[in-house]
Structure formats: structure tokens, C-alpha cells
């Protein structure tokens, strides 16, 4: 129940606060993807993909982006499976725990999120700017938004999962 409330709070923070703040033209952090990143790996893979798709679809409804977030969230969930397999997380799967800083350790959590968060931002901003892509602006937006999202996700991890 605690994890569901945490996910709802993160989602509403994204929808009600971060989507409406005008930091600059280059800063658009997507922290709601933390919900996908920390899904318990013992859940059925089809269920995880379904959750990611629905979460992206709901975000698309709020932002009027036709399927961009749904496709990117689904791809993120699939990429996450590769990391779970790569980092040998059998103990976390066997113990039925969530992927978090307290369970993985800061180094492994940072490595996983440090790759997947920019990956997501690359996809989203690339799809949003198809046809009008200015490469330097695109890379700057991805870099700055990813860094801010990583910082916020880490702060949320320490807030919700501090031991």
C-alpha cells in the first residue's frame, strides 16, 4: 500500500507541479518514470509492461502528446529488463523486494538510473521534436532534464526509502 501511495504522489508531483513549472526551454524533467524504474522485478513481465504503457498513456492524456510517453515508457520497461538480467538481481527477486537505493546500494542504483533516465529523455525529446530537431538544443535538453530528474529521483529515494 505504501508503494502505491508513493507512486501516486510521484505521478501527481509530475502532473501538477513539474509539467507546469517553466524552468527554461531546456529543462523538462520526467520523474514519473521512477515508478517504472523501481517496479518490483518479481512481478510478471507482462504486468510490468502493461503498467508502464498505462502510466505513459495517462501522461499522454495530461500532456496532449499522442502516444509518445506510452511508447517511451513501454520501451523503458523493456530496457529495464535487460539491466535486471545483466546485474544478477536474483536475491532481490527471491526476497520480493523493490528496486531502491536501500536494496541495491547507491552505486548500482545510480548506474541503472543514470543510464535509463537519459535513455528515456532521449526517446521522448527525440519523438517530440521530429521534423524540427536542432541537435545541440536536443542534447542540451536531454542532458539538463536528465540530470535534474536523476537528482529528484535520488532525493525521493532517500525520502521514501531511508533506513
Overview in brief:
By secondary structure, the chain is mainly alpha-helical. It is 72% helix and 0% strand.
| Percentage beta strand | under 5%
**What is the mean predicted local confidence, pLDDT?**
86
| Bulk shape | globular
The string of secondary-structure elements, in order, is: HHHHHHHH
Radius of gyration: 15 Å
Quaternary structure annotation: single chain
Main sheet characteristics? none
Low-confidence stretches: none
- Tally of DSSP β-strands: 0
- How many H/I helical runs? 8
Structural class: mainly alpha
- CATH class reads Mainly Alpha
- Amino-to-carboxy terminus distance: 18 Å
Number of domains: 1
Binned, the helix content reads: over 70%
Task: Describe this protein's structure.
There is one protein chain. The chain has a single domain, classed as Arp2/3 complex 21 kDa subunit ARPC3 (Orthogonal Bundle). It has 163 residues and is mainly α. It has helices at residues 2-18, 34-37, 45-63, 68-86, 90-94, 101-104, 106-128, 135-160. The model has no long low-confidence stretch (mean pLDDT 86).
